[in-house]
Recover the amino acids of this structure.
């Protein structure tokens, strides 16, 4: 194929506006990114639209408006979209996938050739349920317009019927001069934020074209928590239940850290693990019990049974940790099973409190290479050994791990997996993850709703509720006219068995938000669909073959119905035909964490731009070393 | 098997064939300072095509790194690894990645094995899968050194002796026996050799078809180019 160099003069593409409009109603965020550019050149040229969206978000819409004509993306089943893509390739048209990713975000990019003196408007919409971490919700908007923009605006409206407890905003690019431009209005249940610098205010210096707007814009907030039962909102036949009671006492926990010290952990990774564990061990509460297992092809326990997290024991463990050295192969199976044995023995021998929460935190950077290496057998072994009695959290260090294996294994055992990125902040990532799970408040949390009243419930059992997080359950009401129903939440608390009972009632949104006739209509239904799809996708990975097939079919149906780009669907975008190029098909996919391997800090920006030169990257260079070989003819 | 010696400084390559009885074990690399040894055992065709001469290929490689206590036996069937007495078996049929303290192995299913010995050497072994029912040919292996700059000056072997380059001059080419392949005289290691311009294949990127690499072909088992003669490189065992 001939590669044609595009000659583009960026000065001849004027980015006229970039607008990011985010509306949040009850944690469900709906963001619209719009960008308009004008090709001022007297020849046609390629215009790029590259934006980043959070990994947890689903794209719901994409459109391009060129000279009054609108081209809209269509969500299709992935396989069908792929066929369309292949068809485009086989008929000689250029076609490409639209996907990329970063640590927290993933990239959507598209380029279109537009005629001389033409305008183009790109609009991308995505939705996500904001998750509560460390007692706050976070909206992150990445902006990198790369050039000065005539009309640049970030606007956010937050509607929280529970009332906004606090709201903070900051941006990595905010200078003292830009700070007053961030306008923030917070009333009881409503917040409005805007940031709209003029061309001059965007400039890096008075006479230059460089822009200051380059970085992340954060909004962090929390809602008021008054009732033990949590907050239940009923809208148009759907309900959502947010549960994160205040003032619960922490449960004692029993935790075994299972640390990979195989050869590949040597160097920085081992050093960072040791450093993180020093702090993590210090952060254990005195009533906690803990154990440490390190493994390569040999399994080494710090102590054969759990120890109370007394200062003396913690200090002894810290000395043990200091001396962990990386060598050998990776035997994940036996290491995790040993941790299960230790926790099981502690529970059986009643050396730990009856109301305590047991968990295993596995840290590994590679595939199993010793002992049992079949991933399915390992998953089965671990699932059978754990038997629902404890949670397993897996931390995959770096990119060589089979993340999908860790993810499924964690989900099968009421836990979750997290990737730890190899970087200077790996210590903070490890500590951060531990902090998230360090304080279980409740265990065995059951949500009960009258069976004759609700249906299509998302998950209603949760192994644990952690401090600073929130459990969300959603469902449909059997009768759209229904305005109230009974709710009960029961769980094991620190002191007593926790039971909260009450009546859910529909609120009148027009009374709560009288000036806001429209928020975004069916958001409770979409929130329910979003949550259901997320849970079905989890189920798809961890269930029996039949469950997997059913979950996949159901998730696909919902993705198509609600226009979500999920790992099962793709958005097919048709680029218009021009004099130089035929009609072109592009496909936007949703990546799974497993597919994100290898991409750490992509160069991404929000808005439209002209292309920059691509510099080939060299991953390995053996400068003058000859490649000598011997082979057959 | 055909040998290729790339010489990036000269932007050129040398090549020669080695043919001997199937089953012969050749030393390819021996570095007494790092304790690295690579030996390869040849195999022939299943049966000899009466219309052609018998070709040999490498069917097994034995790799030793004394200092790291590593032994690696790679055949067309399997890969056996031992490190300080611990053993593991890998198969060509799986994508596998093994990370050890001193050695990383990566098997790309039915295709290649990449071996990285820390601070020492990186090489790739290519598996050539042949149709099982082929009347004459069978599976064989190729060995490619990717990084050899850490070998000591004392490294030798059929490949190893070229790791630090080789000095040679080539005369103006002239018409040879084959009209498409000019001949020339090469002055190397005190010898004047008749060499032919041809090409050999690099199978790293395209295991089926390979990519042509132009090279000066040294006839007669590389005689004159390699130090000593072929018998100096035959060894009694893989390890």
């Amino acid at each position: 194929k001939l590669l044609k160099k595009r000659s583009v003069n960026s000065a001849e593409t004027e980015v006229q506006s970039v607008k990011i409009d985010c509306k949040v109603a009850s944690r469900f965020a709906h963001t619209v990114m719009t960008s308009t550019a004008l090709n001022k050149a007297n020849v046609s040229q390629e215009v790029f639209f590259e934006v980043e969206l959070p990994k947890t978000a689903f794209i719901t819409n994409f459109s391009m408006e060129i000279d009054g004509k609108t081209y809209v993306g269509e969500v299709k089943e992935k396989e069908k979209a792929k066929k369309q893509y292949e068809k485009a390739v086989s008929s000689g048209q250029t076609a490409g996938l639209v996907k990329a990713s970063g640590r927290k975000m993933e990239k959507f990019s598209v380029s279109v050739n537009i005629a001389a003196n033409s305008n183009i408007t790109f609009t991308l919409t995505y939705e996500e349920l904001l998750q509560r971490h460390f007692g706050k919700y976070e909206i992150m908007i990445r902006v990198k317009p790369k050039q000065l923009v005539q009309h640049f605006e970030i606007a956010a409206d937050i509607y929280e019927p529970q009332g906004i407890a606090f709201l903070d905003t900051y941006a990595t690019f905010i200078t003292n001069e830009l700070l007053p431009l961030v306008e923030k209005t917070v009333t009881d249940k409503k917040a409005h934020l805007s940031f709209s610098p003029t061309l001059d205010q965007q400039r890096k210096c008075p006479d230059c074209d460089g822009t200051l707007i380059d970085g992340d814009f954060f909004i962090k907030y929390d809602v008021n928590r008054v009732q033990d039962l949590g907050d239940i909102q009923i809208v148009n036949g759907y309900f959502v239940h947010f549960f994160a009671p205040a003032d619960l006492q922490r449960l004692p926990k029993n935790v075994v850290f299972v640390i990979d010290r195989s050869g590949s952990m040597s160097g920085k990774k081992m050093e960072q693990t040791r450093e993180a564990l020093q702090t993590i061990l210090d952060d254990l509460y005195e009533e906690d019990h803990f154990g440490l297992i390190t493994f390569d092809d040999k399994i080494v326990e710090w102590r054969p049974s759990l120890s109370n997290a007394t200062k003396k024991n913690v200090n002894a463990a810290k000395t043990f940790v200091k001396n962990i050295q990386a060598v050998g192969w990776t035997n994940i199976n036996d290491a995790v099973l040993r941790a299960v044995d230790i926790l099981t023995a502690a529970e059986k021998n009643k050396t730990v409190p009856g109301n305590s929460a047991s968990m295993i935190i596995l840290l590994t950077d590679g595939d199993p290479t010793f002992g049992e290496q079949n991933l399915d057998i390992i998953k089965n072994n671990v699932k059978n050994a754990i038997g629902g009695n404890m949670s397993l959290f897996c931390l995959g260090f770096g990119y060589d791990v089979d993340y999908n294996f860790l993810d499924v294994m964690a989900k099968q055992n009421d836990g979750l997996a997290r990737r730890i990125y190899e970087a200077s902040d790996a210590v903070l990532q490890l500590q951060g993850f531990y902090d998230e799970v360090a304080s279980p408040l409740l265990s065995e949390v059951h949500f009960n709703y009258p069976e004759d009243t609700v249906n299509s419930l998302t998950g209603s059992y949760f192994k644990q509720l952690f401090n600073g997080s929130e459990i969300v359950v959603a469902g449909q009401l059997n009768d759209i006219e229904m305005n109230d129903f009974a709710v009960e939440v029961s769980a094991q608390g620190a002191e007593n068995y926790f039971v909260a009972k009450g009546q859910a009632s529909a609120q009148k949104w027009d009374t709560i938000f009288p000036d806001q006739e429209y928020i975004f209509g069916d958001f409770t239904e979409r929130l329910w669909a979003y949550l259901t799809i997320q849970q079905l996708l989890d189920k798809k990975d961890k269930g029996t073959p039949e469950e997997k097939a059913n979950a996949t079919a159901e998730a696909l149906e919902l993705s198509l119905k609600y226009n979500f780009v999920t790992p099962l669907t793709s958005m097919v975008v048709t680029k218009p035909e021009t004099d130089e190029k035929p009609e072109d098909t592009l496909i936007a996919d949703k990546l799974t964490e497993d597919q994100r391997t290898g991409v750490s800090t992509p160069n991404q920006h929000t808005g439209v731009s002209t292309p920059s030169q691509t510099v080939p990257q060299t991953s390995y260079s053996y400068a003058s070393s000859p490649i000598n070989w011997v082979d057959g003819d | 098997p055909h040998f290729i010696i790339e010489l990036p400084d000269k932007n050129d390559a040398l090549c020669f064939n080695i043919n001997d009885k199937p089953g012969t074990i050749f030393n390819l690399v021996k570095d007494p300072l790092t304790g690295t040894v690579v030996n390869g055992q040849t195999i022939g065709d299943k049966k000899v095509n009466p219309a052609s001469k018998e070709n040999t290929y490498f069917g097994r490689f034995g790799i030793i790194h004394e200092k790291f206590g590593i032994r690696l036996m790679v055949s067309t069937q399997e890969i056996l690894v031992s490190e300080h007495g611990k053993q593991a078996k890998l198969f060509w049929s799986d994508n596998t990645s093994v990370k050890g303290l001193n050695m990383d192995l990566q098997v790309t299913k039915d295709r290649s094995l990449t071996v990285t010995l820390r601070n020492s050497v990186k090489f790739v072994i290519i598996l050539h899968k042949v149709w099982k029912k082929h009347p004459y040919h069978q599976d064989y292996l190729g060995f490619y050194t990717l990084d050899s700059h850490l070998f000591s000056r004392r490294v030798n072997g059929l490949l190893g002796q070229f790791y630090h380059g080789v000095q040679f001059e080539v005369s103006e080419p002239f018409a040879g026996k084959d009209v498409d392949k000019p001949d020339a005289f090469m002055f190397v290691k005190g010898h004047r050799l008749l060499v032919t311009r041809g090409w050999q294949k690099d199978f790293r990127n395209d295991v089926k078809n390979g990519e042509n690499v132009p090279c000066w072909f040294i006839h007669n088992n590389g005689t004159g180019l390699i130090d000593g003669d072929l018998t100096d490189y035959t060894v009694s065992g893989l390890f």
